[in-house]
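A reminder from the course coordinator: this example appears on the midterm review sheet, so study it carefully.

Given structure:
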């Protein structure tokens, strides 16, 4: 194959060409991870696995490119169709990549969302973890009209402050909603305070670095997702605590998860008494940790939308068909997948009980179901 030479130096091949080929090879390798169990898993999981890779690819290339910038900007981390890493349907994630500046300012208006926080993440270590610093609305001063300001710097600053250093890579803004129809989202911006110069154009070496960073991340995301499933499939239909819940965890949250596995005509019945907390929610996700379709189906509930019993307990039914009971979550054609509960700023996390049952039995007994109650 003929090498294309760098126009400024006829003796050196273009590094971007080599990096592009490495990226294509990494994508193919990650795709083989998705295809490895094609004979043993539902076809929908294979198709969505390839979609997951493209979601991660586009997101990470964008993030990697912004690391060269001294002009940060908040961009949506996930959307209703681009999803990964156990996104929550009730949460807006905005991510600003921190580049070469030392100090930043975030400012805006609080709105009325149930929860707002800003969390700074470091580069990922060899063990797959990140160091983080979190600032939630409990520790931010707001004007009577809801305006606020947060400084990000190595040295402590008065008022709202987050420590950043040379290892800081991104700040993620999270907003939780109980009712998107009535709550007003917060609005905010970020800027560098060190009078940055314009960004350089994307050159040969710059593209090569971005492509290689993206390739590494895509392969890691595919491998991590597959490993999570293998660990949980050994104990299906049972909830466990997740501990740190991956590199981009929210420190104000406690998480419990279950790998559900249902045959034809089966349902998973989940009973729980949620703790006192700012927010709790439950939703379904596919094999790769992407929330199921929450635009056109009910695949998630929270403390405002779930129906509770008189004692505050909640029964959730996970099934592929409507059993005619409150709190049904639609598996949307996924006989296997994840159920994830979040307890935000909870007094103490709790562990739900789960039982796999025949859907016909639920329908026969629905008149006597003990968890009627009114909406919370």
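Designed residues:
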């Amino acid at each position: 194959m003929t090498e294309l030479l760098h126009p400024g130096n006829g003796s050196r091949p273009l590094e971007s060409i080599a990096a592009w080929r490495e990226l294509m090879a990494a994508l193919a390798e990650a795709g083989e991870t998705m295809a490895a169990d094609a004979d043993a898993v539902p076809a929908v999981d294979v198709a969505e696995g390839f979609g997951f890779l493209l979601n991660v690819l586009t997101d990470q290339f964008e993030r990697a490119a912004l690391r060269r910038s001294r002009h940060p900007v908040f961009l949506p981390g996930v959307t209703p169709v681009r999803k990964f890493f156990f996104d929550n349907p009730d949460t807006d994630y905005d991510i600003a990549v921190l580049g070469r500046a030392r100090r930043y300012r975030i400012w805006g208006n609080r709105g009325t969302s149930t929860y707002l926080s800003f969390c700074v993440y470091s580069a990922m270590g060899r063990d797959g973890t990140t160091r983080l610093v979190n600032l939630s609305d409990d520790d931010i001063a707001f004007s009577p009209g809801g305006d606020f300001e947060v400084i990000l710097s190595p040295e402590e600053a008065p008022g709202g402050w987050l420590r950043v250093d040379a290892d800081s890579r991104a700040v993620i803004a999270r907003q939780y909603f109980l009712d998107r129809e009535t709550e007003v989202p917060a609005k905010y911006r970020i800027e560098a305070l060190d009078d940055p110069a314009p960004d350089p154009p994307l050159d040969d070496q710059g593209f090569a670095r971005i492509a290689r960073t993206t390739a590494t991340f895509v392969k890691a995301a595919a491998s991590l997702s597959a490993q999570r499933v293998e660990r949980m499939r050994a104990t299906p239909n049972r909830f466990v605590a997740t501990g740190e819940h991956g590199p981009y965890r929210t420190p104000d949250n406690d998480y419990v998860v279950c790998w559900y596995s249902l045959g034809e005509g089966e349902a998973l019945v989940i009973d729980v008494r949620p703790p006192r907390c700012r927010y709790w929610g439950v939703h379904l996700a596919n094999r790769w940790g992407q929330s199921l379709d929450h635009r056109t189906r009910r695949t998630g509930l929270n403390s405002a939308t779930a129906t509770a019993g008189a004692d505050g307990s909640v029964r959730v039914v996970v099934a592929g068909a409507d059993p005619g009971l409150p709190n049904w979550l639609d598996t949307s054609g996924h006989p296997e997948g994840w159920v994830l509960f979040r307890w935000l700023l909870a007094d103490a996390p709790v562990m739900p009980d789960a039982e796999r049952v025949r859907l016909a039995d639920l329908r026969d007994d629905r008149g006597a179901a003990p968890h009627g109650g009114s909406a919370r």
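Residues 367-376 have pLDDT under 50 and may be disordered. The two ends are 66 Å apart (CA to CA).
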